[in-house]
Amino acid sequence: MKILILPPYHNKNGYTLQQTHELMENLEKKGQIAKDEYVIVKGSFIDWLQERRGFEFLAVINLGVIEKVREYSQSGGIDAIVCLGSLDPAFFPAREISDIPYMAALHPALHVASLLGDKCSVIESVDSSAIIARRNAKVYGFDEKLVSARHVGYSSTYMGKFLNDYPKEDRTSVPEIKTIIRDIVDQCVGAIEQDRADSVILSCMPLQVFEDEVREGLNSAGYSDVPLICELSAAVAMAKAVVNMNLTHTRLVYPREDTKLKYTVR
């Protein structure tokens, strides 16, 4: 099995690619995937939108994701594609284009949360990303499952700078990183206590890099029984499961010109 790991974009500071490698190494250490089971590629280069995270940003990265999915799904040697973007860029066109399973980030995480409990919350970086997460959940049919979409108020670029500047073993001694982790934990606790979530999803990549520290914070707050779901981990697990079942997207939902049977639109 070979899974393509696709960051939605990369820029001159290299934060996105660096975080992708770190997250995949974490999954290796946990035994979820072997090094020879995946390959990481660069997303399309985008730099001018790096501080924006709204619908304009999503529209721009959609095109880059579509190009990469078209290229790699047709190149052979790849069994599935996992896109890390927490905004689920190009979700529908990518599945229409690809002949192999295409997994976004939030979509599989919501499925995992629904398998584990009744109500979940997603923690995002900034408010615009949280708005898109809420809208995507509604489109996917998880509107009643997702009780809240919260954010910590730091852009992924801001958090990525600290992740890039400090090695993993030194990060918890950096005051700014301590503050970021504390704020993530506070949002998770708020989701549990105020929104009645029974599981929590860590969304954008920098938040997922802090998984171990957030897990420790939740345990200390008395919520060791509440599942903490990282989007990349959920996406990889779902991709492997679908590949092992020898399945891919149904053409009745993602039709192409050669689809024989088409639904009548009602």
Q: What are the defining features of this structure?
A:
2 domains; alpha/beta; globular; 4-stranded parallel β-sheet; 266 residues; 10 helices; 47% helix; Rossmann fold
Q: How would you describe what is shown here?
A:
With 266 residues, the chain is α/β, with parallel strands linked by helices. The protein has 2 domains: 3-104 and 233-244, Rossmann fold (3-Layer(aba) Sandwich), CATH 3.40.50.1860; 107-231, 3-Layer(aba) Sandwich (Rossmann fold). It has helices spanning 15-29, 55-73, 91-97, 106-116, 127-140, 156-165, 175-193, 205-209, 211-220, 231-244, and strands at residues 3-6, 38-40, 80-83, 102-103, 120-124, 146-151, 199-202, 228-230. It has a 4-stranded parallel beta sheet, sandwiched between helices. The chain has a 4-stranded parallel beta sheet with strand order 6-5-7-8, sandwiched between helices. The longest helix is centred in the N-terminal third of the chain and has 19 residues, at 55-73. The model has no long low-confidence stretch (mean pLDDT 92).
Number of domains: 2
CATH topology of the largest domain: Rossmann fold
| Gross CATH architecture of the largest domain | 3-Layer(aba) Sandwich
Total helical segments: 10
Mean pLDDT: 92
Largest sheet: 4 strands, parallel
Poorly predicted segments: none
End-to-end separation: 39 Å
Strand residues, percent: 5-15%
The count of DSSP E runs of length 2 or more, i.e. the number of strands, is 8
Question: How would the global form be characterised?
Answer: globular
How much helix is in the residues? 40-55%
Computed Rg: 18 Å
Structural class per helix/strand content?
Answer: alpha/beta
Across the major sheet, the strand order is 2-1-3-4
Give the SSE string: EHEHEHEHEHEHHEHHEH
User: Any idea of the CATH class of the largest domain?
Assistant: Alpha Beta
